[in-house]
């Protein structure tokens, strides 16, 4: 199984277009210390030819351009992307669908809850029904989006997308609106969880034995954005577990039986983005990799 991390940042990317926080400033002035990153997405293939796109980033056009394996390979119109899977309905995971509207057939997969949010917004009708099939997938049901590739969706603690929040919103609930994906090919297993509000025993059991875990790395501490002076929301309020601190993912997953451990979906204020920072050193000492755009895995 071949995995390409197309985008490793959280919503807005790095640098964010209107932000002068220390990380965004370094990404503009010292990219050797803070690499610029696009918004969260990966591509997975069992044969190196047909690809499953997991989440459609607003930056998808640039991401596909930057990765030659994703370029058209034959005829006047062609795309190696044969299917798209959504793990939630956040803007940074669905807005790229609007770019994939050029009459190219593929199948769009997601839970009924996630697809309902897409179907309710008519702007996504630019993906013509006769061209793009929308296939709802039940939790814990293994399906084959592409030959040689199987996927099982499972609930993780999360919340509804920001644009669907209301007074009934519950943070940390396990519903169809935030899911993880266990992706398997040729006897190898990849767990992909770009959004998670907390690490539970059930979740630890679900990912145990995976050859690689790509996990929510939005914030280092719960109050990263407050410390940076650019926001008031905590990681918990956004539906994202911190790496460190009480209930942090590094400690919670320390004894989990896993192969590679990689943080993805990293917010622009997270100090681990600075390659020579003590926070980066602590994360790496704990056995984790901080993802960057273009990082490839062969499992």
Automatic annotation (TrEMBL):
Pathway: Cofactor biosynthesis; pyrroloquinoline quinone biosynthesis. Pfam families: Lactamase_B_2. One of its GO terms (biological process) is pyrroloquinoline quinone biosynthetic process. InterPro entries: Metallo-B-lactamas, PQQ_synth_PqqB, RibonucZ/Hydroxyglut_hydro. Keywords: PQQ biosynthesis, Transport. Residues 51-266 form the Metallo-beta-lactamase domain. May be involved in the transport of PQQ or its precursor to the periplasm. Belongs to the PqqB family. PANTHER family: COENZYME PQQ SYNTHESIS PROTEIN B, HYDROLASE C777.06C-RELATED-RELATED. This is Coenzyme PQQ synthesis protein B. It comes from Methylobacterium radiodurans. The lineage of its organism: Bacteria, Pseudomonadati, Pseudomonadota, Alphaproteobacteria, Hyphomicrobiales. The gene is pqqB.
